[in-house]
Amino acid sequence: MATAALPTDAPAPKKKGKKLILIIALLVLIGAGVGAGLFFTGMIGAKEEVEQKDMPKLLPKGSKPKAEGKEEGGSKEGDAPKYESSYFQLEKEFTSNLKESSHLIQIGLAVSTHYDEKVTEALKAHELAIRSAVLMAINDTDEEAIFTSEGKKDLQQRLVKAINAVLKEKEGFGGVSNVYFTNFIVQ
Q1: pTM of the model
Q2: Which of 16, 108, 171, 180 has a CA that sits 20 to 30 A from residue 32's CA?
Q3: How many domains does the chain have?
Q4: Whole-angstrom Cα distance, residue 126 to residue 122?
Q5: Contact residues for 155 (Cβ-Cβ < 8 A; gap 6+)
């Protein structure tokens, strides 16, 4: 009797195994269909869209109102920049030692951006962190380099990187395209 029980029990697990595989496959297909439906209706990926809304937007040329009586001209269409520039002047001047020198440098800074007001709002909100990063970059400048135009251009580029690094850390975006010296004294 033991031999008769084995053959009848053996086919039953095979049928249950096939049913289990069929149920799992059906659940996977249903899950894939629901996932695809949510993706195409925008429920998945909505978080990325919200994050994109908080990012600054480029200002195309001509998006700012022109001042009365001012005419644009003097350049060909191909020469004109594609985006508007906005400027923001940092209020206080920066005074720092130069690297391995007894000389002091005092500079005033303004920054430019091609993005909307979110960048200038971030500059205002994180002014203390930006001031610290700028002072560290100035303090890491060699005395000989500061007296050459190449050294000043290098300092400008390092200041842009330092300011953008602070903005990226604090806000998730940079946006400063250039730094301008409004005052430059070495003593």
Answers
A1: 0.64
A2: 16
A3: 2
A4: 6
A5: 137, 138, 141, 145, 146
